[in-house]
Design brief:
By secondary structure, this protein is an alpha+beta fold. The protein folds into 2 domains: 53 residues; 68 residues, Trypsin Inhibitor V, Chain A (2-Layer Sandwich). Helix content is 50%, strand content 21%.
């Protein structure tokens, strides 16, 4: 008789596993169309944002005293190119931009066109 209980438990486990597998497969099949649409929408929005950024002149924001990562994001959002240098003017390759602070920028202010270069002078934090 103890084997009957074991067989019943095993049957229940197999049935539960089959049900779970079916639910996962059905969910994946139903959501695959939505995923394709969701993946396409952000790409279209990103293209629109890039088109918006690349048009016309823009004011250069003051990004001094910001962490390099934040400064780069702010300038890139305006469609500006970024060059990073140290106090001596030597190019800096910042593998971790959170470890650098912007101490100066060129141009410091004014209006520039999208695609223009803003040079950021940085120091390690």
């Amino acid at each position: 008789m103890p084997q009957e209980g074991f067989v019943k438990k095993a049957s229940v486990r197999v049935g539960a596993a089959a049900l779970a597998a079916s639910v996962v497969l059905l969910t994946a099949a139903c959501s695959s169309d939505e995923t394709e649409n969701e993946a396409t929408e952000p790409a279209q929005e990103q293209e629109q944002e890039q088109e918006d950024v690349a048009e016309g002149p823009t004011e250069v924001p003051d990004v001094t005293v910001l962490i390099l990562e934040t400064a780069q994001s702010n300038l890139a959002a305006l469609g500006l190119e970024i060059e990073v240098v140290d106090a001596d003017g030597a190019a800096v390759t910042a593998e971790d931009p959170t470890q650098y602070m912007v101490t100066d920028q060129d141009p410091a202010e004014g209006t520039v066109e999208a695609g223009d270069v803003v040079t950021l002078t940085v120091r390690e934090r």
